Amino acid sequence: MNSRSTITANSVRSSEAFRSPTPDLASPASVEKLHALSINPFQRPDWDRLVGALPNHCFFHSSAWARVLVDSYQYRPVYIVRESQGILQGLLPIMEVDSWISGRRGIALPFTDDSEPWCLDSDVFRSLFQRAVELGTARGWKYFECRGGKNFPDNAPSSLGFYGHAVEILSDEECLFARLESSVRRAIRKSEKEGVSVEVSQSLDAVREFYSLQCKTRKKHGLPPQPFAFFQNIQKHVLAGDLGIIVTARYQGRPIAASVYFHFGQHAIYKYGASDESFQHLRGNNMVMWEAIKWYRRKGMKRLELGRTSVANEGLRKFKLGWRAEEYPIEYWKYDLRSRRFVADTDAAMGWHNRVFRAMPIIFSRAIGAVLYRHSA
């Protein structure tokens, strides 16, 4: 059973619970005596133990990711839980984003590819949903958005859709290599033949090298880079805590490609990738990914998630499928607290702004990114 079918099994729902096209999950009468609490995970020393005990637990539910978001952007953590005798029965992690530009809202979770709720059953989810509505109404949220887990509010329309990909990590390295697409195998062999070396690090120096490449890559894609402080906090709370790595490819001592990976339990996540386009012919990105897969195999990891991919980004989708990755849908959902209904959204990754940032010097796009990301979440 793959992880997606397992998640579905974990969200067992009664056949009567979600019949209407836009179910009234916010109705207090539907929750009856089920109670959910809103907590700050930082006030729970046992938080990572609780999350780590959940089937299909996710790195993004960990306290380390919460620390990165709070320290980088001053968001307010509001994690809604159902708990019994020290065991989580349900979890809906939310960060309150309070912006004078984009308004106040709840997001589960900002800058996260796929962070769906975890619930024992539909009744537990309804109690979490009701608590989120109560809290958001009291706090003046415009809406709350969940990035993943569209299967929980059944029959509700998704707000956005993406591709997700994951590589099953086999125990045998030769079998892993043999199952890659031939073009990927050729790219790895070419990179090795050209003398590209690869190293794994958790240091701040590695973060600096990655960020330099990241700024170039974001310019190529027509997007501002996130502030360097964000990646400093990743090093402080994730890498230094042995919950992530940076893999860097070098040619003649010069960094030509690098990626950031997170891990928690037996699952790893490819989060950020960057490269120097002038060395694209050396296939450094392929070497980086292959080294990460081998590294996680040695660590006993079972699965490497490759993050979300916009439907319009066929190039990135093709790159991920080349690793024989399982493809599955990632669907977000958004509940408007003013109209009390689920609403659609648009993927803002592509638009007129891409041309502007491609033409803009990196120093200016960095300054804009340092202001913009806190508000965009």
Short account of what is shown:
Helices cover 37% and strands 27% of the residues. It is α+β, with helices and mostly antiparallel strands.
Main attributes?
377 residues; alpha+beta; Aminopeptidase; 2 domains; 37% helix; globular
Tell me what you see in this structure.
Strands 1, 2, 3, 4, 5, 6, 7, 8, 9, 10, 11, 12, 13 and 14 form a 14-stranded mixed β-sheet that branches. Residues 1-23 and 27-33 have low confidence and may be disordered. The protein is built from 13 helices and 14 strands. It folds into two domains: 3-161 and 332-345, Aminopeptidase (3-Layer(aba) Sandwich), CATH 3.40.630; 164-329, 3-Layer(aba) Sandwich (Aminopeptidase), CATH 3.40.630.30. 37% of the residues lie in helices and 27% in strands. α4 runs antiparallel to α9 and α7 packs across α10. It is an alpha+beta fold and 377 residues long. It has helices spanning 3-10, 28-31, 47-52, 63-73, 122-139, 173-178, 182-193, 204-221, 228-239, 284-298, 314-321, 352-359, 362-376, and strands at residues 37-39, 76-84, 87-99, 103-108, 118-119, 143-146, 160-168, 197-201, 244-251, 254-264, 267-275, 303-310, 326-336, 341-343.
